[in-house]
Every structure is written in C-alpha cells, then in structure tokens.
UniProtKB/TrEMBL annotation:
Pfam families: Hydrolase (PF00702). NCBIfam families: HAD-SF-IA-v2, HAD_type_II. Transmembrane segments: none annotated. Keywords: Hydrolase. InterPro entries: 2-HAD, HAD-like_sf, HAD-SF_hydro_IA, HAD_sf, S-2-haloacid_dehalogenase. It comes from Caldovatus aquaticus. CDD domains: HAD_L2-DEX. It comes from the Bacteria. This is Haloacid dehalogenase type II.
C-alpha cells in the first residue's frame, strides 16, 4: 500500500449491517399494516434485491442518473405491492420514514474503532452508491468519522461504472493509485482495481444472513486482506 493516501469504503454491507437494520424497522411497519406474518429479514432481502436492477437502469443510460433515495422509495412501493400492500393506502409520512431506514443503519462493531485508527494516517471517505444526504445522516447517527462524505451523485455514476472510482479519486485530488478501496465484495474490488485503485478485502460473512454463500473469501490476491477494520488498521500500521 506504499503511496496510498486515501482509503475509500464501500458502505452497504462493508461498513453497515443493512439487513438487520432494515428488518428492525420493517417489523413494526408490517405489523401495523396487518402483515406481522411476514419475515422482516425476508422483506429486507426482497427490498435489497431490487437495488442493482434499479441502478442498472441508470448505468445503462435508459434512465438519467437518479439518487438512491428515490430508487429506494420506488423499490419500497414495488415490494409492498408484491406483498399485497397498497402504498396508496399508507400515509406518505410513514412511507418516507421507512424509506429513510437506510439512513439509520448500524455499523459492524469493529467499524468505528477501526476507522478512528485509520483516520490518523489516511484520508477516509465513503465510496458508496448511497446519496450524500443518506450517508451524512448515517454518519451522524452512527459516529462514522469520515473526513469527507462523497455520495454517488457527486460522481454521477453507480459502481461498478469506472467513473464512480475515477471521479472519486479526482475529487480527492489524488491519482487512482493513491486511493485504496476497502470492500467486502470481490466484484467491487475487481472494478476498482481495473481503474488503477489499490484494494483491501474485509469479509462480512453475515451481510446476507446465516445462509450467505457469496464473498466469504477473497477471490483474488487483493493488496490487503484483513479480518475486520481493526485488523486492517493493524496491517496498515495504524
């Protein structure tokens, strides 16, 4: 990692536990609307399953770049309809509150202490498909000590588009090789490496629950492979 001056982080799954956070807020919502029989974690999975297809509409050019809060809201309404609930019959304030559950996700236990150590040596910032307001609210609530908050609308691109990685490095005033992506997803790291960024893999084997089968181990020889953020900090001399 010689020459690296900034660490940028995938957020959903790598920094925060989206599945448990969404399930926590979905459970009372579903109960209030007569669907206490639904598994809130399965509901979270169904909502998340629409994430990549929605962004692909923007990546492909079939739709102009649209911030993630808007995509999440459209996906929420689609998931509700798929589960027999009519969004038109639910108060706007309640739908908005549930949609903003993505702003209130909890970090994994090692994240804040690990970021605090890494911040002493590196510039640290998110490189996420989340929008600025989402990432800002998340950071304020969870105590994430970012040096900068860069959302996808800053780059006007969604990972794994090259622009997402290259424009982030440019915004930080750095060459791609001076920036390392930290992520729990091999595909994200592969796209970053193709753009000249350095790479650090940190597994999150519970991101998708106990039955997770993806991203349990590094798929390539990434520049750094660590157990968690505190191990990453130790490996980088922080």
């Amino acid at each position: 990692m010689e020459g690296v001056r900034a660490l940028v982080f995938d957020v959903f799954g790598t920094v925060v536990d989206w599945r448990e956070g969404i399930a926590r807020e979905a459970a009372p919502f579903l109960a209030r609307h007569g669907r206490a029989d639904l598994d809130p974690r399965a509901f979270a999975d169904a909502w998340r399953a629409r994430y990549q297809p929605a962004m692909e509409e923007c990546r492909s050019g079939r739709r102009p770049f649209t911030r993630l809060d808007v995509l999440h809201r459209e996906n929420l309404e689609a998931v509700l309809r798929a589960h027999g609930l009519d969004p038109a019959g639910i108060a706007e304030a309640e739908l908005d509150a549930l949609n903003r559950a993505w702003h209130r996700l909890d970090p994994w236990p090692d994240v804040v202490p690990g970021l605090t150590r890494l911040k002493a040596r590196y510039v640290i910032a998110p490189l996420s498909n989340g929008n600025v307001a989402l990432l800002l609210n998340m950071a304020k609530r969870a105590g994430l000590p970012w040096d900068a908050i860069l959302g996808a609308e800053v780059a006007q691109a969604y990972k794994p588009q090259p622009e997402a990685y290259l424009r982030t490095a440019d915004i930080l005033g750095l060459a791609p090789g001076q920036v390392a992506l930290v992520a729990a997803h091999n595909g994200d790291l592969k796209a970053a490496r193709a753009c000249g960024l350095r790479t650090a893999f940190v597994p999150r084997p519970r991101e998708h629950g106990p039955g997770q089968t993806s991203d349990l181990a590094p798929a390539e020889a990434w520049d750094v492979i660590a157990r968690d953020f505190e191990d990453l900090a130790a490996r980088l001399g922080c």
